[in-house]
Amino acid sequence: MTTAFRAIAFRALAALAVGVTLALPSGARAQSVEEVRLAVQAHNPEFISADEEGGANIGAEVLTASPAWLDWAFSPRPTAGVSINTRGDTSAAFAGLTWDVDIAGPVFVSLFLGGGVHNGERDSNEPDKRNLGCRALFRESLEIGWRLGNGDAVALALDHMSNAGLCDENDGVENLGLKYHLKF
């Protein structure tokens, strides 16, 4: 994939995540955005995954209030975000649902389930690239965090994207690092 194409894909992915947020009516957006999560993560760390890609990922997520119709599912919050690789490897935009569960005192876990699109390789012979098979992938994230006194939080987060075997190639991609939760 050429550098120019990657730059265009990067902008398209970022625009998608921003578009999901801006698609909310302005009054609803102002009232329902509860949290923004900012991430700095290692992309495909060797001790978790193969070493085809690397670098750091910078991410941002917007979490809105859980709508009443999701009460039956323990009130997950709709989430949209981006994860941008600083080295030009796989970046992604994603959307789904996030559940937060308090464990003890300020300690909590957070689980995200959803899907995303990426600008990485689907089926490549390049030895330094992950073969992700499909353009659209499933995405899961698990965090363990600590709530700060001001309502914000810090968390250790592991994100995973793959196609669950729906395409011929399925290398998947992982990100591991820290997230800062800004509460509104």
Would you mind describing this structure in some detail?
This protein is mainly beta. The chain is built from two helices and eight strands. The chain has helices at 3-22, 26-32, and strands spanning 33-43, 56-64, 77-85, 92-104, 107-118, 136-147, 153-162, 173-183. The chain has an eight-stranded antiparallel β-barrel with strand order 1-2-3-4-5-6-7-8. It starts with a helix and ends with a strand. The relative contact order is 0.20.
Order of secondary-structure elements: HHEEEEEEEE
Number of strands: 8
Helix content: 10-25%
As a percent range, the share of strand residues is: over 45%
- Helices, by number, come to 2
Global shape: globular
Largest sheet: 8 strands, antiparallel, barrel
Gyration radius, rounded: 16 Å
- Record the strand order, biggest sheet: 1-2-3-4-5-6-7-8
Distance between the termini: 39 Å
Mean pLDDT over the residues:
86
Top keywords for this entry?
184 residues; eight-stranded antiparallel barrel; 2 helices
Layout of strands and helices, then pairs:
Elements: H1 3-22, H2 26-32, E1 33-43, E2 56-64, E3 77-85, E4 92-104, E5 107-118, E6 136-147, E7 153-162, E8 173-183
Antiparallel strand pairs: 1-2, 1-8, 2-3, 3-4, 4-5, 5-6, 6-7, 7-8
